[in-house]
């Protein structure tokens, strides 16, 4: 999957593209922190950017281009790719029941985390029946 990044794109467009490929994962973008740490942790919820905001509103670097994402990439690689190429603070979350949580296994591939979340959610649905 290739995601085109430029200042005129809305965050929700990127989120929708990502969700089509990985329905049990989601990518969120955060306002650029005052410091230049690429992966501030934890990211404060107040910095979460609204999906209708434009990319230009959450970064100071205005590079445009394409980020190639494939299923074998680690979650942390994707987040670092958004930062290194485009100055975007991105976090990937996985679905657990009705909640979206930061994975403790950031070294897992997107595919593995997506499938694990799907299986976990299927099991919890069956338990409720």
Overall structural class, as computed from helix and strand content, comes to: alpha+beta
Number of contiguous helices: 3
For the CA atoms, what is the radius of gyration? 15 Å
Total beta strands: 5
Spans of at least 5 consecutive residues whose pLDDT stays below 50 are none
Strand content: 15-25%
Task: Note the topology.
Elements: E1 2-5, H1 11-21, E2 25-30, E3 65-68, H2 75-86, E4 89-96, E5 99-101, H3 110-128
Antiparallel strand pairs: 1-3, 2-4, 4-5
Report on the structure:
This protein has 129 residues and is α+β, with helices and mostly antiparallel strands. It has one domain (2-128). The chain has helices at 11-21, 75-86, 110-128; strands at residues 2-5, 25-30, 65-68, 89-96, 99-101. It has a 3-stranded antiparallel β-sheet. A two-stranded antiparallel ribbon has the order 1-3. A hairpin with a 2-residue loop joins strand 4 and strand 5 (99-101).
Please give a quick description of this structure.
With 129 residues, this protein is of the alpha+beta class.
């Amino acid at each position: 999957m290739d995601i085109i990044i430029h200042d005129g794109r809305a965050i929700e467009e990127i989120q929708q593209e990502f969700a089509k490929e990985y329905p049990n994962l989601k990518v969120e973008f955060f306002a650029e922190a005052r410091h230049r740490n690429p992966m501030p942790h934890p990211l404060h919820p107040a910095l979460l950017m609204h999906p209708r905001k434009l990319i230009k509103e959450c970064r100071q670097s205005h590079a445009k281009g394409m980020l190639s994402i494939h299923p074998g990439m680690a979650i942390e690689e994707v987040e670092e790719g958004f930062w290194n190429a485009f100055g975007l603070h991105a976090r990937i979350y996985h679905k657990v029941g009705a909640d979206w949580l930061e994975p403790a296994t950031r070294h897992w591939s997107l595919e593995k985390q997506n499938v694990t979340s799907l299986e976990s959610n299927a099991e919890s649905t069956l338990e409720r029946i």
